[in-house]
Design brief:
With 568 residues, this protein is mostly beta strands. It is built from three helices and 57 strands.
Length: 568
């Protein structure tokens, strides 16, 4: 047995006895106490692990979190660690002994985190602690990306742009938005927003953004829309909106444009129209109750905007509308009501802070800015257009004004027509011209020519300066430095260049007070207090806003006054 050999029965007996004692000593679970079980603290079970995450520098990170449990009534504790190498043991993070930990995002780079969960149970008879280590997770902190948030009011006018980090941004924290104009039942979305790119926020509803010629052409399909131009557009005559006669104007007499079009300080160029027998000709044919804002329109090289009646580069006719902070560049031609910006403005329309350059020509009622204004106003604007007509009513700013006003404006182009020619207006009826000046030559070949106006029938001409080199008219009594002919109205406190070339008939009291070139390039001439007719100054307001629109600088605008918004 077991390979042993015995010499006698006694040896066999003692061997069996030894084997029994040996087996009894090897089979026990206790140390002689009679209790054979040992209980250790239970190892925690992790049911929710912390998760990887990425943030921009300076963001508030989401807490790392672990969920663990035991069933032996032990007490769980936590200790978080971090390391720059996931294969190495981490460094203990002092004081971070909770179930969650919020990592820092101040430093760019990648760090790794884990937590050791320990179960402590002092009621067991074995080991009283047991622990487990969570997954190691990475927290990536990157240099933040920034995007712009641009705000626009209900007229789609730009208010301000702020920069914000990509991600979730709380718009309510953006200050100085009290000047946003809201439409009825409209609120700017001052809530959290996921920012992934540059965005524009409008205080108006349903704004359509225009980026190209096709989208511009589509405006004619929704004539009451609100549009904003996001880039310059150079029109292609082989694409949308053109036919054999050039651009098809947006809106006409029976279907006019009645929306908002904000150029956003961009331009539309290469415009041309050859509609010699058409009415309502321009980028826009006919606008009513509309706004054209912050828009530049340029005609194509060697071409022009041509129509019959109501012809303008921006709009043929404007009824009860506003054109502001806009300009036209190029040539316009027609028969009646021709203007560099608009052919005719009526029904309480306003043209402000705008200008035109180029040439306007036709039969009659032609102006550098507007051919005709009726119950409308032009303010804080200028024209360098050369204006030429065949019959009558030609002016550097307007051809004819009826029940209207022109203020704080100037013209530098020449005005030529048979009769009713003026540096500012050809003729006015129950209208006013104030705080304005002209520097172009005026030629009324058959009479009625003046440095400011050719003919007035009611209204007033006050506080203006005629700086025209020459005024020509066939009939001497129909020409003068300020007004060619007065048939009712008031003409007072106007200045005129003393060296103006003209046949003077001063008996009608509209020659203006003599001023030299030096005086007419001096601020005091314009802004000094009015002290009677021809004495003191003109009372103009100098500053940086619409109420105080004038500036003067010997090195700008040939030394003559200019408007505060001009980029000279």
């Amino acid at each position: 047995m077991l390979g042993l050999k015995f010499k006698s029965l006694s040896e066999i007996f003692f061997s069996i006895l030894f084997l029994c004692f040996f087996l009894a000593g090897c089979g026990g679970g206790s140390s002689g106490s009679g209790d054979s079980s040992v209980t250790n603290a239970q190892t925690p079970n992790i049911t929710i692990q912390p998760a990887n995450a990425s943030y921009a520098q300076g963001d508030t990170a989401n807490p790392l979190s672990v969920n663990a449990s035991v069933t032996d009534a032990g007490v769980l504790s936590y200790q978080w660690y971090k390391t720059s190498n996931p294969n190495n043991n981490g460094d203990l993070i002092s004081g971070e002994t909770q179930q969650t930990y919020t990592p820092s995002t101040l430093d760019v780079g990648t760090l790794y985190y884990y937590v050791v969960v320990t179960n402590t149970n002092n009621n067991v008879n074995g080991k009283t602690t047991a622990n487990i280590t969570s997954d190691t997770v990475s927290i990536v902190v990157s240099i933040p990306k920034f995007h712009s948030i641009s705000f626009y009011d209900k007229n789609l006018d730009f208010i301000k742009t702020v920069e914000a980090k990509e991600g979730i941004v709380d718009l309510s924290n953006i200050s100085n938005l009290s000047n946003v104009w809201y439409e009825a039942n409209e609120t700017l979305p001052l809530t959290t927003h996921k920012l992934t790119d540059d965005i524009r926020l409008y205080a108006a509803q349903n704004v359509q953004e225009i980026n190209n010629q096709k989208e511009l052409d589509n405006t004619r399909n929704a004539l009451t829309g609100k549009y904003i131009l996001l880039d310059n557009i150079t029109l292609d005559e082989n694409k949308e909106g053109f036919d054999a006669n050039g651009w098809d104007p947006i809106g006409n007499y029976t279907s006019d444009f009645r929306g908002i079009f904000n150029g956003n300080n961009n331009s539309i160029s290469n415009l041309w129209i050859n509609g010699t027998s058409t009415y309502y000709t321009g980028l826009f044919g006919h606008i009513s109750y509309s706004q054209i804002r912050n828009l530049g329109v340029k005609t194509a090289n060697g071409k022009k905007v041509t129509g019959n009646d109501y012809v303008g580069i921006i709009a043929g006719k404007a009824d009860s509308s506003t054109i502001t902070n806009s300009y036209s560049m190029g040539n316009v031609n027609g028969s009646f009501h021709i203007g560099g910006i608009v052919g005719k403005a009526a029904g309480s329309s306003n043209i402000t802070n705008s200008y035109s350059t180029g040439n306007a020509s036709g039969y009659q009622v032609i102006g550098g800015i507007a051919g005709n204004i009726e119950n409308s106003n032009i303010a804080n604007s200028y024209s360098t257009e050369n204006v030429n007509g065949t019959a009558n009513y030609v002016g550097g700013i307007v051809g004819k004004a009826e029940y209207s006003a022109i203020a704080n404006s100037y013209s530098t182009g020449n005005a030529n027509v048979a009769t009713d020619a003026g540096g500012i207006a050809g003729a006015i009826l129950f209208s006013n011209i104030t705080n304005s000046y002209s520097t172009g030559n005026v030629n009324g070949t058959d009479g009625y020519a003046g440095g400011i106006i050719g003919y007035i029938s009611s209204g007033y001409i006050q506080n203006n300066a005629a700086i025209n080199p020459s005024i020509v008219a066939r009939v001497a009594r129909s020409v003068n430095r300020i007004v060619g002919n007065i048939n009712g109205g008031t003409v007072s406190n106007n200045f005129a260049l003393n060296s103006m070339s003209i046949t003077i008939d001063g008996s009608n009291g509209n020659a203006g007070a003599n001023k030299t070139i030096t005086q007419l390039k001096t601020k005091a001439t314009y802004n000094s207090t009015i002290n009677g007719d021809g004495n003191g100054g003109l009372g103009w307001k100098f500053g940086d806003n619409d109420t105080n629109p004038w500036k003067i600088d010997a090195n700008k605008n040939n030394g003559y006054p200019y408007l505060y918004w001009q980029n000279l």
